[in-house]
Specification:
This protein has 451 residues and is an alpha/beta fold. The protein contains eleven helices and 17 strands. It has two domains: 50-56 and 363-448, Sandwich (Immunoglobulin-like); 62-358, Alpha-Beta Barrel (TIM Barrel). The protein has helices at residues 4-24, 81-85, 99-102, 107-119, 136-148, 170-187, 217-225, 250-256, 260-275, 303-318, 350-356; strands at residues 50-60, 67-69, 91-94, 124-129, 155-158, 192-198, 231-236, 281-286, 323-326, 362-368, 373-379, 385-391, 397-403, 408-416, 423-431, 435-438, 442-448. The strands form two sheets. Strands 15-14-17-12-11-10-1-13-16 form a nine-stranded mixed β-sheet, covered by helices on one side. An eight-stranded parallel β-barrel has the order 2-3-4-5-6-7-8-9, surrounded by four helices. Strand 6, helix 7 and strand 7 (231-236) form a beta-alpha-beta unit. Residues 1-28 form the signal peptide.
Amino acid sequence: MFTKKRMFLHGVVIVFALLCAACSQPLAGLNDPPPTPSPTPWPTPAPQSIYVNPHISLGTISPYVYGANYGPWMSIPLALQEEARQSGITFLRFPGGNWGDTHTLKPYHIDGLMMVSEMLGGAEPSISVRFLDSTPEEAVEVMRYVKEQGYQVRYWSIGNEPSLYDEYDTERFNREWRAFAEAMRAFDPDIVLMGPEIHQYTGNPATDPRDAQGRLWMEEFLRANGDLIDIVSFHRYPFPRSMTDPEATPDELLANSEEWDHIIPTLRQTVRDLTGRDLPIAVTEVNSYWSNTSSGETTPDSFYSALWWADVLGRLIREDVEIVAYFALQTPTSIGGYGLLARTDVRPTYYVYQLYKQFGDERVQAETDVPRLSAYAARRADGALTLIVVNRAADAQRVPLQIVGVEQATAEVWLFDRAHTAEQVASVTLQSGQAVDIPGEAVVLYVIHPE
């Protein structure tokens, strides 16, 4: 039986216990960490404008996207050696084209490659060893000479466009390619192997090269040799589409640059699916035409082809391609208008590199939804922000430019069009949100230096 006194004491104990329990809990909010402040949202791109956000880094641009094919079948004229030095070419694919599968490389050929590499300011050399009518042992002998001379050659490939070989299907090529690769790696495990170097890959199974049994060259190569390859490589020349349609119209050529927005992502996914790896991609031969043509409205030596290339190169940079080797460094007109250099003068595509060599090595966000307009932006080592705008439209376009964090700035302007060969023109004052004038069929480089 509880007495009143016991009931009182019992109540005191309960209250005391409840108070102690309450005191053992932290007061709400007293020891909570301070809330993380919400980031200030970046402005969203306005429609029908150019939008640049230099605060969003999209990674490092490979220095080897400014490459070219070079071989013993080319010669850099004495009168153009200074232009070659100033070309901005950073990577050399040697010996270029199918020459390497019809000739055996001699020591003096390799010596010549290294001399040109030095002339171009230390352009990274790569060598494609002969595959047809050759052996893994002969490939290793080429590597042995390179090593004995102390030449630094890291990038190697085996053969050229096997998808065009007579008497080869994917199974035979993949088996023999593997024997070459294993021998070369045994000699030097540090080499970087590129392949399969097939022709006309587009990421479309309906048109991609197949062997006589209907097997896709790229897919079969990745299945068979995906464990040995370091960089997945291919070639692309979109025109002519047939010999009955030998020349593209300007509209056809300029619209074609957009295909790269499909080709590269499709190949990346195919590589992941078939190898389980994310491998770098190289486009080791590329130009507007595969035929030996020149002096046409859109042939490789034309202004239109240069305008096309300015946009293609920007898209390849945007897709984070590791190596791009334009075809070619030099050719006389007698064998086609391919080369950046001719016999006595440079061709229009040369000037594309005069702009891009000022671009920078850190890609930042840039986009536009204006038809036939492309925008690519980068940050340079000196802190400058650069913007390349390619206008594939015939008419000038007046477009608002929005640069996040830049209210007003003075920009250098470099212009490539029919009247200007990548020349510096009058500087402009850029005000974020205000319109800029982009000339028709032109490439404009803006350079904004840090204050």
